[in-house]
Design goal:
The protein is of the alpha+beta class. The chain is 45% helix and 19% strand. The protein has one domain (3-133). Strands 1-2-3-4 form a 4-stranded antiparallel beta sheet, covered by helices on one side. The longest helix is centred in the first third of the chain and has 41 residues, at 3-43. The N and C termini lie far apart (70 Å). 16% of the residues are buried.
């Protein structure tokens, strides 16, 4: 076996270990978080407005005056999680929570997001709303 073949096999073994030790657990964590989010979102079917925090996941459902609903899921930054821990009442304000989170980051009240610590979100439009369950 040549030196280059040994290096190639070593690189392949390192890649396999990385996939097993790093990528696979992250993929499993992502899958578990997605399944949890899906279950929570399904539970909001008959709710007009809601705000749920599960760890670093924030789920917001809003129903507009015309009855059209939307759901936003967002991964919170460490600073945002801390701010919500200190201000749990904001979870009762799905109409204002995103503006509030942005304002605390801008004010510097908590750690500012860095390139690797920025929250991310996904918006999903839901049709029809149940006006009987407005929190």
């Amino acid at each position: 076996m040549t030196s280059q073949e040994v290096q190639s096999r070593t690189a392949a073994a390192e890649a396999a270990i990385k996939v097993h030790m790093l990528d696979k657990p992250q993929a499993e964590a992502n899958k578990a978080q997605a399944e949890g989010a899906s279950a929570l979102i399904s539970s909001l079917a008959n709710v007009r407005n809601a705000c749920i925090q599960a760890g670093t996941l924030l789920i917001i459902k809003r129903t507009l005056p015309d009855g059209e609903s939307f759901i936003l899921t967002r991964t919170l930054t460490i600073g945002e999680v801390k701010a919500l821990e200190e201000n749990q009442g904001m979870l009762g304000r799905p109409d204002r929570i995103l503006e509030w989170l942005q304002s605390i980051c801008l004010e510097g009240a908590h750690s500012k997001p860095s390139a690797t610590d920025s929250g991310s979100g996904t918006l999903r439009r839901v049709t029809g709303g149940n006006r009987d369950n407005d929190p």
